[in-house]
Amino acid sequence: xxxxxxxxxxxxxxxxxxxxxxxxxxxxxxxxxxxxxxxxxxxxxxxxxxxxxxxxxxxxxxxxxxxxxxxxxxxxxxxxxxxxxxxxxxxxxxxxxxxxxxxxxxxxxxxxxxxxxxxxxxxxxxxxxxxxxxxxxxxxxxxxxxxxxxxxxxxxxxxxxxxxxxxxxxxxxxxxxxxxxxxxxxxxxxxxxxxxxxxxxxxxxxxxxxxxxxxxxxxxxxxxxxxxxxxxxxxxxxxxxxxxxxxxxxxxxxxxxxxxxxxxxxxxxxxxxxxxxxxxxxxxxxxxxxxxxxxxxxxxxxxxxxxxxxxxxxxxxxxxxxxxxxxxxxxxxxxxxxxxxxxxxxxxxxxxxxxxxxxxxxxxxxxxxxxxxxxxxxxxxxxxxxxxxxxxx
Length: 393
What we know:
Elements: H1 5-11, E1 17-20, H2 31-41, E2 45-48, E3 65-68, H3 76-80, E4 85-86, H4 94-99, E5 106-111, H5 127-131, E6 137-142, E7 159-165, H6 179-189, E8 196-199, H7 204-216, E9 220-222, E10 226-227, H8 230-236, E11 248-249, H9 253-264, H10 273-276, H11 279-283, E12 288-292, E13 296-298, E14 303-304, H12 319-328, E15 333-337, E16 341-342, E17 345-346, E18 348-349, E19 365-368, E20 371-374, H13 380-387
Parallel strand pairs: 1-2, 1-5, 2-3, 3-4, 5-6, 6-7, 8-9, 8-12, 10-11, 12-15, 13-18, 15-19
Antiparallel strand pairs: 13-14, 16-17, 19-20
Helix pairs in contact: 6-7, 7-8
């Protein structure tokens, strides 16, 4: 059925800030309604987060102000064009931002029908933090969303249903690792001990890490901000320990079906940021091996994940949350894994193209296809020399 634009307009007061739920389950069917309303009113503001797919129909230049706390793949062009402002924030800080300076007046999200009311689907992220503020929630009921999220149904008194669709979350094909990434994955697997918690991100590097884990036969617990198809491969190989923990799902339809089955069985996969990115939880046992990548790294081991000098690539996200927690915990490791070059240029630079995303003192081990360097306990000069063999001229 068509969504009710008049119902949405009735919820939006003059000058309102609208929070648009992010992730693969972002309410894409509502994008044209939001854009049209913004153009008509001329004074509406928007805050959103990580949009991993095309943002077709979301006309960010229609808003008086549009901000994202995590640019993501779907917002790169809009950010480069100046239509959305990228707020530098670690993911664990986003609940505080939406409760404070970026507090919205309305939340627009997609939810799955549940037996006792609409429930969150393929992500929780910072959405629960906004719901807890008591703001109205404009809901697109999506019958194809997985019921993979922890937490109760949406509060009846806050919910206004705009209509029903059958879109499901945005699907991404599994990545195929390059030879360089496969080598990196093997080096990373050599750092793992049986039963550790492993954080990794989807994409070529993440797929290579999973391949390395499978080849090494190491049993791991999945504890990651983003969870992709690799978790199913680990389970099929008998190497997945316990229930996975994440705040976003991003992958194939098979991944969403897998997560839906787990959620319906009482083992939800995705949880709110306040749980997934809590530094105390991340630094606790079992040990955590946080595997993050970088756009570039400097000679001191400082990391930039936001972009190059000319193009935005992504946001800070959970990078410093996981790296900082792993670096401070005994038997845990903060790993930065990246190819030594990209498009013919070294990824090790004298000076970062953008501000530091993760400090060098939160980096324990650096891995490239040429090997790994353990930087723990080294002074600045020793760290620089240890990195040299990983980035041959």
